[in-house]
Specification:
nine-stranded parallel beta sheet, mainly beta, globular, 42 strands, ten-stranded parallel beta sheet, single chain
């Protein structure tokens, strides 16, 4: 195994590490699940086919070559009826998207199905004559973890998702962004649901006539550590006998065009009323919610200057800067989860933070306004931005232990690296090659080039990742790149 060497590519924007190591053969264990092997809409190896042949208790996974890819539906939505099924893309680092192609929903879940969806993005759904632009779920049980529902449309209710008819639902670490429902519930419509819990979830940039973010119609969901921001048609609207519970939640910058700022965040009709505590709600007195209504300092909030002409958007960055006033103001007792929306550990200090994200975020200029990214403040041969991206202080003493390390153990090769996890301007990627040719570098694929052996948060700013390298090549190069994204 050769020693690591460093090469610089573009002194300001990209820093590269390259390694070569002799790799021992390794095998990947098949978990015995149905595997989607292509992005076709139908036929052998497709997701539609896997759902069609699945039986109760089956799980559907995805081939590593589909990482970050898109399955585009051309023959209508994917129907799950009367089935207990898990669709799980957690083996894909970047997940997978399923697109309704602006022509159909993505999923319809009916007939008391028990469905779990993990690490999926449902996008570009369209239900031009009904409810649930990307997702329609009625009856049974639904669990969504680490899923996104974006850029979808419903003619009536639930531009992103319609969840109703006595279904039990649990949504954790999800986002509903840029969706539109013409009548009720731009992001989500909850209708008469049996029991719903929504945690660590972002609902932003959605639009509807009523309840731009969420519309509760005879539903009593519990929302904990959510961020509801920049929705047109109010943040949350409660109709008839809806009595939702909100804890550790930020509701800010939602607009409806009439009423007080407070009433544009939560709109109550009839006998409906929200049970609110430990929440940050724009325009609401601190005596009613325990938290002062101070600007949460989102990195890039979504603005709704005119609700009538607002175009739904999946943009914005609703993480907060490290000078946000929301830190340590939540209720630990309300929390039942370990991770926030970005996968960071919940309760980094003594008390949990309200909103979908735990802890604050930084940028290079935010932390080091006097330093140039391409400079070398501590004269150790590494650029300031390089050290910042690794999570160390570029003005501090040299820390060679922060550099990626290659080790051999039991005949397998392991690559250990660190990275800053509270940065908004760092993009990190690994590529691999067998011959160093300029066109030979390929993105590293989970399950093909590596499996994650362990992930350890060294601090709220820094994470260590250990990859077990896979392959039978006598030698192989690995290169890590950091880019300043803004």
């Amino acid at each position: 195994m050769e020693l690591p060497h460093i090469s610089m590519k573009s002194p300001v924007r990209t820093i590269v590490l390259a390694f070569v190591a002799n790799l021992a053969p390794a095998q990947i264990l098949n978990a015995g699940i149905l595997t989607v092997t292509n992005s076709s809409d139908s036929g052998p190896g497709s997701l539609r086919n896997a759902i069609a042949v699945a039986v109760n208790g089956d799980s559907i996974g995805f081939d590593p070559t589909l990482d970050g890819g898109t399955i585009t539906l051309t023959t209508g939505h994917l129907l799950i009826s009367g089935l207990q099924l898990t669709i799980d893309a957690t083996s894909l680092a970047s997940g997978i998207s399923i697109s309704g192609n602006h022509a159909s929903r993505v999923f319809a879940i009916i007939s008391d199905s028990v469905v779990t969806l993990k690490h999926l993005t449902l996008r570009n759904g369209n239900e031009s004559a009904g409810n649930g632009g990307a997702l329609f779920a009625a009856g049974g049980q639904l669990v969504m973890t680490d899923c996104n529902v974006i850029n979808s449309y419903a003619r009536y209710n639930g531009g992103g998702a319609y969840i109703g008819n006595s279904i039990q639902a649990t949504l954790d670490r999800c986002s509903f962004r840029g969706n539109k429902g013409d009548d009720f519930g731009g992001g989500i419509f909850f209708g008469g649901t049996a029991a719903v819990t929504v945690t660590n979830t972002l609902i932003s940039g959605n639009r509807s006539l009523n309840g731009g973010g969420i519309l509760n119609f005879g539903a009593n969901p519990t929302l904990v550590n959510c961020t509801i921001q920049g929705n047109s048609g109010a943040g949350v609207r409660n109709e008839t006998t809806s009595f939702p519970t909100l804890r550790n939640t930020i509701i800010w910058g939602n607009r409806i065009g009439s009423g007080t700022i407070n009433s544009q965040q939560i709109r109550e009709n009839g006998t409906a009323i929200s049970n609110v505590n430990y929440c940050l709600i724009e325009g609401r007195s601190a005596t009613l919610q325990n938290l002062p209504a101070n600007d949460p300092k989102f990195i890039t909030p979504i603005l709704v200057p005119n609700p009538a002409t607002f175009v739904p958007t999946a943009g914005g960055d609703l993480r907060v800067y490290t000078n946000s006033p929301v830190f340590d103001l939540g209720s630990n007792a309300a929390n039942s989860t370990n991770l926030d929306l970005s996968g960071r550990t919940r309760v980094q200090n003594v008390t949990i933070d309200p909103g979908a994200y735990e802890g604050g975020y930084v940028s290079f200029p935010f932390l080091y306004p006097s330093l140039s990214p391409s400079g070398d403040e501590n004269l150790n041969g590494l650029s300031n931005f390089f050290e910042y991206a690794l999570g160390i202080n570029p003005a501090g003493p040299n820390d060679p232990s922060a550099l990626p390390q290659m080790t051999l153990n039991g005949g397998s090769a392991f690559l250990t690296s660190t990275r800053r996890i509270n940065a908004i301007d760092v993009q990190s990627s690994w590529v691999t090659s067998t011959n160093l040719g300029p066109l030979s570098w390929q993105a590293m694929l989970p399950g093909t080039n590596y499996v994650v052996d362990s992930t350890t948060n060294l601090s709220p700013e820094r994470q260590q990742v250990v990859f077990q390298l896979l392959g039978t090549d006598p030698s192989r190069f690995y290169r890590q790149g950091f880019e300043m994204s803004n």
